Amino acid sequence: MPHNSTQANGERVLADLNALRAIGTYKTGVHKPTFSEPHARSLEWLAKKLPEAGLSAAVDGIGNVLGTSAKAGPKLLAGSHLESQNYAGWLDGPLGVIYALEAARVLNPDPAVNGAVEVASWCDEEGHFGHFLGSRSYVGAVSEADIDAARDRNSGRTMRQALAQVGLAGRPRLKALRGRYIGYLEAHIEQGETLESGGLKIGVVTSIVGIWQYRITFTGEQNHAGTTRMAIRKDAGLALARFCVAIDETFPAICGPRTVWTTGRIDLDPGAPSIIPGRAEMLFQIRDADSAVIERLEQRLRAMAREATARGPCSVAVERIRTGAPAMMDAAFQDAIEAASAEFAGGKSLRMPSGAGHDAQILATIMPAGMLFVPSIGGISHHWSENTADEDIVTGANVFVETCRRLLMR
Length: 410
Ligand SMILES: [Zn+2]
Description:
Layout: H1 10-21, E1 25-26, E2 29-30, H2 37-49, E3 55-59, E4 65-69, E5 75-80, H3 94-107, E6 116-121, H4 133-138, H5 144-149, H6 159-165, E7 181-189, H7 194-197, E8 202-208, E9 210-219, E10 223-224, H8 236-250, E11 260-269, E12 275-276, E13 279-288, H9 291-311, E14 315-324, E15 327-328, H10 331-344, E16 349-354, H11 359-363, E17 369-374, H12 390-408
Parallel strand pairs: 5-6, 5-7, 7-17, 8-16
Antiparallel strand pairs: 1-2, 3-4, 4-6, 8-15, 8-17, 9-13, 9-14, 10-12, 11-13
Helix pairs in contact: 1-3, 1-12, 3-12, 8-9, 10-12
This protein binds zinc ion.
């Protein structure tokens, strides 16, 4: 039987999500890049809401919002992010923040509940200025020099300028108090169609993928496209195209069951119709929940580059430019989400890896962490039409609150 005292107030959750959608609306979604005016107003909105849950609010020097409780007993940290991709959806981020707020509102005043839920909104999860700068700052992985170097990928304004414009310059950055939390819980829309197509309501995240990124450079010889005979060309663009095809033929035999790889960008130099490219570059990404799989694929990639260089006529160089370690979600958190789903979602849950990155993978480096997903209509995300049925949002809120209760009451 559901415990009524620990149920979410579905109307209140939907009203709060719509209030955040009304700040920076774009069609049915939002346009809220990090440190834009609507993003700053959303942070203020949250800071004003936190006292409803008995939490004192702080907005720190990198735009993280944290609500802390004076209640005795164990503390569970919960949250997500409030900025959006450009011209994107209304739930990516706010869903997890409002679920955390709701759990705190329901559980913190309840004397029968041991301890409290504390609420966080991590700044710039969407990477306008870097990679997970807010949550990484909180776990102590961002230096002042990193902030000096960070720039808005759209406008080029520096992070220092942006912080000054939203009135956060010079504020201290909040750092995790080691040992304060029993762990971190985050809810998010799935951003895929696994739950919807399976008629399921809750995804119990088992792991968050690692993302490794490479710059692969091809060096040949720039020359005239009309007078240079085919036999003597050193066409770096052609070498790149061959390499792409070779990856796609080689990887399936040695990858894991859910490995994905993508060539997201190709540049030819000089990139003109009448010039044979002397240089070509591709940005290549591999994602998997198992570092060992990615390492195996990287070794193969490097071997392929050596073989291609030896064969000629172009040389190939592989450089790893980003290493995002995969994160395993805590087993006890997975069990709590599954038990809460049995109670509030008719058991329609599925254990699944996350193919997208989330702040939970950063928090997982210093405390046990868990994540749950709710269905995305049509699997659409990072687009203004992103949506989840109201009914599914409310089901997710109930599962989230119940999961928090179970974790605090262990
Ligand atoms: Zn997100």
